[in-house]
Automatic annotation (TrEMBL), chain A:
This is Amino acid ABC transporter permease. Keywords: Amino-acid transport, Cell membrane, Membrane, Transmembrane, Transmembrane helix, Transport. The keyword Secreted does not apply. Gene3D superfamilies: MetI-like (1.10.3720.10). The lineage of its organism: Bacteria, Pseudomonadati, Pseudomonadota, Gammaproteobacteria, Oceanospirillales. Belongs to the binding-protein-dependent transport system permease family. HisMQ subfamily.
UniProtKB/TrEMBL annotation, chain B:
InterPro entries: AAA+_ATPase (IPR003593), ABC_ATPase_HisP-typ (IPR030679), ABC_transporter-like_ATP-bd (IPR003439), ABC_transporter-like_CS (IPR017871), MetN_ABC_transporter-like (IPR050086), P-loop_NTPase (IPR027417). Transmembrane segments: none annotated. The keyword ATP-binding applies. It comes from Marinomonas transparens. Belongs to the ABC transporter superfamily. It is a peripheral membrane protein. This is Amino acid ABC transporter ATP-binding protein. One of its GO terms (cellular component) is plasma membrane.
Length: 220, 242
C-alpha cells in the first residue's frame, strides 16, 4: 500500500527544500554563466598564459567528480584557513562547476563569429571591449543557447549532491522525510516530480530569456 | 597634397614576401582602382592602409598621421578611413538603423537623435531610406552592401577603402552598388578600390594601379592605362578579364 497522505504533514519541509534549491539554482546559473563567459572570452582572445590558466581550470573541473569538488571546498579548505558555511561552499562549488562546462560551450559560440565582424567593428573605431559586448556576444550566445540551457539544467539537477553537506535543499528534505516516516517510495517519487517540474520551469524561463535576447531572428 | 601616402612598404607573411616596396600617392578626391590577379597583394595593400594588416618596412601616412596596427592608432584612423568589405559584415542582430548609428553614438559620442539624423541622411544617399528598421538578413546582397556604405559614410571619412565590394554579389545587383560609388566619386569622396570591375575603373576612376607579384607594376591615368597598357603583364591581364 502506498501512503502519499503521510507526506502532507511534511509539506513545509518539502517547500522549504524546494525554495533552497530554486534560490541556489538562480544564483549559480547567473554566477556560473558569468564566470563561463569571462573564461570563454579569455580562452578565445586572451594571451597565452591566461589561456593556459583557464584551460587548466576547465580540465580540472570537467575531469573530477562534482561531489569530490564539493567535499574539497567544504571539508578540505578549512585546513588552509578557509572556513565556509555549507551554503557558501555549495554556491562556490556549483558556480565553478557550471563555469567550467559553460566555458567550453560559450567558447564554441565565440569561435563561430567571423573575423569580418570583428574587423568591421575595428574599422568603425570600436574598442575591443565594445566589440565584445555589442557585436560578438549576442550572435555568439544565439548559436550555443540550447546547449547552454541544457547545461544549466544539468547543474540544477546535480545540485542534489549538496544535501550531503547538510544544505537543506529538496533532496535533503526527501531524505529527512523518508527517515522519519519510512515512506521512501512516496518521498522520492514526489521529490523526483518536483525536480521534473523545476527542470520544465527553468527551461521555460531560459527559453523566454533567449526569445527576448535573440528577437531579431524572429522578426520578418 | 597627398591624403594617403605609401613609401617603400614591405609586408611579409612569415617567409612569404607579399608586398615588395610599394610607393603610392593618393590625393584627396581621387578614385584609385587597384587591379591585378588574385595573390598579387592588392587586398593586403588596402588592409595595410587602415591598420588591419601589419607591414614590416616603409611607411604609410593618412592625412599626415602615421599608420600602425596598434589598437589606439587603428581607432584614430577609423575617424578618417572608412572601409567596406566583400562580405558586407553588417551586424546581424541590429537593424539597419542601429548598424549605422552604432559608431557615431559610441565612438563619436553623438546623441541618439543626432546619430539617427545622420543615419537617415546616409540611407537616403544610398537609396534605402525605407529600410531603417529592417534587419540585414531581410535585405538583398546589393542592399546590404549599400547599407555598409552608408554605415561607413556616417563616420564622415576622408577616404573610403573598398575591398572587392561587388565580388560577392549576383551580377544583376552589382550595378546598384557601383551607382552609389559613382555618386560618391562625383561628390568628391576619395575612393580606393580593389576591384575587378574594369568598366568602372575606366569610366569613373581617375587612376588605376596594376599590381603584379607584390609590386606596383604599372600605374597611371585610368583611361590611358587601360586602353594603352605598357607592360606585357598588364596587356595579358586586361586580355584575360575583358
Amino acid at each position: 500500500m502506498l501512503y502519499f497522505s503521510d507526506l502532507l504533514q511534511y509539506s513545509d519541509t518539502f517547500l522549504s527544500g524546494l525554495r533552497t534549491t530554486v534560490e541556489l539554482t538562480v544564483l549559480t546559473t547567473i554566477l556560473g554563466v558569468a564566470l563561463g563567459t569571462t573564461c570563454a572570452a579569455i580562452r578565445q582572445y586572451g594571451n597565452t598564459v591566461s589561456q593556459r590558466v583557464v584551460a587548466s581550470y576547465v580540465e580540472l573541473i570537467r575531469n573530477t567528480p562534482f561531489i569530490v569538488q564539493l567535499f574539497f571546498i567544504f571539508f578540505g579548505l578549512p585546513a588552509i584557513g578557509m572556513k565556509l558555511s555549507p551554503w557558501e561552499a555549495s554556491i562556490i562549488a556549483l558556480t565553478i562547476n557550471l563555469g567550467a562546462y559553460s566555458t567550453e560551450i560559450i567558447r564554441a559560440g565565440l569561435g563561430s563569429i567571423s573575423k569580418g565582424q570583428v574587423e568591421a567593428a575595428k574599422v568603425l573605431g570600436l574598442t575591443f571591449r565594445q566589440t565584445l559586448f555589442r557585436i560578438i556576444f549576442i550572435p555568439a550566445f544565439e548559436k550555443i543557447y540550447p546547449a547552454l540551457v541544457s547545461q544549466c539544467i544539468i547543474v540544477m539537477l546535480g545540485s542534489a549532491v549538496i544535501s550531503q553537506i547538510s544544505v537543506a535543499d529538496l533532496t535533503y528534505a526527501a531524505n529527512l522525510v523518508q527517515s522519519r516516516n519510512f515512506r521512501a517510495f512516496e518521498s522520492y517519487l514526489v521529490t523526483a516530480l518536483l525536480y521534473l517540474g523545476l527542470s520544465i520551469i527553468l527551461r521555460f524561463v531560459l527559453d523566454a530569456i533567449g526569445k527576448r535576447l535573440f528577437a531579431y531572428r524572429a522578426i520578418k | 597634397m597627398s591624403l594617403v601616402n605609401l613609401h617603400q612598404v614591405h609586408k611579409y607573411y612569415g617567409d612569404l614576401h607579399v608586398l615588395k616596396g610599394i610607393d603610392l600617392d593618393i590625393k584627396a578626391g581621387e578614385v584609385v582602382s587597384i587591379i591585378g590577379k588574385s595573390g598579387s597583394g592588392k587586398s593586403t595593400l588596402l588592409r595595410c592602409i587602415n591598420g588591419l594588416e601589419e607591414y614590416q618596412q616603409g611607411g604609410i601616412t593618412v592625412d599626415g598621421n602615421e599608420v600602425t596596427t596598434e589598437d589606439i592608432q587603428v581607432r584614430r584612423l577609423a575617424l578618417s578611413v572608412g572601409m567596406i568589405f566583400q562580405n558586407f559584415n553588417l551586424f546581424p542582430h541590429m537593424t539597419v538603423g542601429e548598424n549605422i548609428m552604432l559608431a557615431p553614438t559610441i565612438v563619436l559620442k553623438k546623441s541618439k537623435a543626432e546619430a539617427e539624423e545622420i543615419a537617415r541622411a546616409m540611407l537616403l544617399k544610398v537609396g534605402l531610406e525605407e529600410k531603417f528598421d529592417s534587419y540585414p538578413e531581410k535585405l538583398s546582397g546589393g542592399q546590404q552592401q549599400r547599407v555598409a556604405i552608408a554605415r561607413a559614410l556616417a563616420m564622415s571619412p576622408k577616404v573610403l577603402l573598398c575591398d572587392e565590394i561587388t565580388s560577392a554579389l549576383d551580377p544583376e545587383l552589382v550595378g546598384e552598388v557601383l551607382k552609389v560609388l559613382e555618386q560618391l566619386a562625383k561628390e568628391g569622396m576619395t575612393l580606393v578600390l580593389v576591384t575587378h570591375e574594369m568598366n568602372f575603373a575606366r569610366d569613373v576612376g581617375s587612376k588605376v594601379v596594376f599590381m603584379h607579384q607584390g609590386k606596383v607594376w604599372e600605374e597611371g591615368d585610368s583611361k590611358t592605362l587601360l586602353s594603352d597598357p605598357q607592360t606585357d603583364e598588364l596587356k595579358q591581364f586586361i586580355g584575360a578579364v575583358l
